[in-house]
Design the sequence.
């Protein structure tokens, strides 16, 4: 009874889940240009996920898995549909989720197994993978009802039918560890072996524990969190694939407007997050998102953005790397430590780049200027 009454009260006051306020990017999240000016490692069409077995670096690009060596990508596997998540184990096992509702686990000798079921349902909408040792695979399922390509509508409808599974690779049995999640898009193990989940639609990271509800450990992020990877030096690297803004938060809470938008407007022009910078006047105009003297202001409201956040061991943000409204390296889904470097895949910028964790955003040509986005 308390839940429905609280929702009615929040709707009347515009508080709680009915609020459309968005936290500012400030402190450790203060905007800069460190992602936009990062060194290009490889030009890759729509890179989505990065994985490493400790020796080689792999990137998913559409239906292909590429091995990157000295900036050159060599195709190591190709599937009939887009790859939606990727993981590799220290002994050379590779797991790839394919948009055609199956998961492929490849052994070091080249033998592979296809998994088409998770519990009582299909292997649908896998958004993140990580090995828990060599014998188990943790699986984030963004939605049990919708394909991964339907992420934009799922977000605007504020759905929460995602789950996290543990797959035993010996028996092929899957155990659901948590359900009712708002598009889980990142998975990581902490130093104690606990499971951390980036819950994208709720703008937070939660910790999972047996028999307990997910516990928020980092909440109210200014964007939609994606993949999460531990840093060998301590802490974690978190990618956020798009920014939040008040227009989108407002539209999410207007069901009549949403219904008309879905029915009458092409999805590319919805008032919803985007993975790529604006390229047409048909996109939603957002007040300050206009050019001045022929140049788009870097602090303008925007539907796309590039953002990576470095977290300490307690999941507190300590540094961030940005590609702002006037940049091109947007839609970052993954940031992975590899070989002493920190690599990021900008899906909206068709680039894999190397960021400098020692860079000081407060000094030099990458310094932030102007108002906050």
Sequence:
């Amino acid at each position: 009874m308390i839940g429905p009454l609280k929702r009615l009260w929040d709707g009347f006051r515009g508080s709680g889940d009915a609020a459309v306020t968005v936290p500012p990017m400030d402190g450790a999240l203060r905007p800069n240009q460190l992602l936009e000016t990062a060194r290009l490692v490889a030009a890759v069409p729509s890179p989505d996920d990065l994985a490493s077995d400790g020796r080689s670096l792999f990137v998913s690009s559409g239906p292909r898995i590429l091995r990157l060596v000295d900036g050159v990508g060599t195709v190591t596997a190709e599937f009939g549909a887009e790859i939606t998540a990727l993981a590799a184990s220290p002994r050379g096992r590779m797991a790839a989720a394919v948009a055609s509702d199956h998961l492929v686990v490849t052994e070091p000798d080249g033998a592979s197994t296809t998994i088409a079921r998770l519990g009582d349902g299909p292997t649908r909408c896998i958004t993140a993978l990580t090995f828990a040792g060599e014998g188990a695979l943790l699986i984030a399922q963004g939605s049990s009802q919708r394909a991964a390509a339907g992420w934009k509508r799922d977000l605007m409808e504020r759905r929460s039918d995602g789950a996290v599974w543990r797959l035993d690779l010996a028996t092929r049995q899957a155990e659901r560890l948590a359900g009712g999640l708002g598009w889980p898009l990142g998975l990581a193990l902490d130093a104690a072996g606990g499971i951390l989940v980036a819950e994208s639609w709720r703008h937070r990271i939660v910790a999972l524990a047996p028999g307990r509800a997910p516990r928020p450990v980092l909440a109210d992020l200014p964007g939609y969190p994606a993949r999460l990877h531990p840093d060998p030096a301590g802490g974690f690297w978190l990618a956020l694939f798009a920014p939040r803004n008040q227009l989108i938060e407002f539209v999410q809470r207007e069901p009549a407007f949403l219904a008309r938008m879905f029915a009458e407007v092409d999805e590319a022009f919805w008032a919803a997050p985007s993975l790529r910078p604006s390229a047409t006047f048909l996109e939603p105009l957002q007040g300050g998102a206009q050019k001045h003297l022929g140049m788009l202001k870097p602090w303008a409201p925007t539907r796309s953005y590039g953002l990576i956040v470095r977290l300490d061991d307690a999941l507190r943000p300590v540094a961030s790397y940005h590609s702002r409204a006037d940049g091109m390296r947007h839609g970052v889904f993954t940031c992975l430590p590899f070989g002493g470097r920190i690599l990021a895949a900008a899906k909206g910028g068709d680039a894999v780049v190397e960021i400098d964790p020692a860079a000081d955003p407060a000094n030099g040509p990458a310094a932030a200027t102007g108002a906050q986005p």
In short: Residues 364-373 have pLDDT under 50 and may be disordered.
